[in-house]
Amino acid sequence: MSNSIDRLAESGRGIKLMWQIADELSYTRTLDNRNCLSLSKTYEVEGHNRSQNIKKASVLDGLMNLLNTWDWQTETEQEEELHETCFQHISLQVNTDVNALTKVLLWFEQLKDLSLPNEVWCKFQLALAAGFTNAVRHAHKNLPVETPVQLEIRVFNGRLELKVWDCGPCFDFDAKLKEIRAADRNNGLDLEVLNDACLMPNRPKTLEPSLFLIAG
User: Fold this and answer.
1) Are residues 11 and 125 in contact, defined by beta-carbon separation less than 8 angstroms?
2) Residue 137, by phi and psi: left (phi above 0), alpha (psi -120 to 50) or beta?
3) Are strands 149-156 and 24-29 parallel, antiparallel or unpaired?
4) What's the predicted TM-score (pTM) here?
5) For 183-213, how does the pLDDT look when each residue is reduced to its tens digit (9 = 90+)?
């Protein structure tokens, strides 16, 4: 596993991978003098799953809606409300130790029963590994092993959000990303890392290489 961690951390490789995977990516300084890496990934929800999740009014609810039209919601409004509702939230705090990646990935396995597309699962797991690795190898370089790394994942209907807090110094994330993109025009994800069994231990790897050619 240590070889995989080193590959993710070297030369800004982890930042590049996260940028390629994420729909939104930021790294900001917080009021408590920490840094927060925030990453979100959207995915398509199958039609039958979406319809099952939309709140269906009972007969009584329907009658009440007729009497109280201001409370009535269209199906589109219900979908929008559902999209913004977090239905699962998990968090974890670990020490600054590369070996804690095993614990981080096992923690992520709590979400294995969700109906996530396999492609999304694998990419988000890789982004999680890269985010944790960057915190350990870069943000917490030369800091005590007891320095905490805090992780949080929120699951919405059609969207996953990851946050990683570190205690390192200020860092110009946007400038580093711009530098990486200018130096490396290869926009495909690294299949050598993606095929590493330690990063995806419990999901079948049935993805085609073309799925990882994400526009930069």
Assistant:
1) no
2) alpha
3) unpaired
4) 0.70
5) 766 555 554 555 544 444 455 443 343 443 3
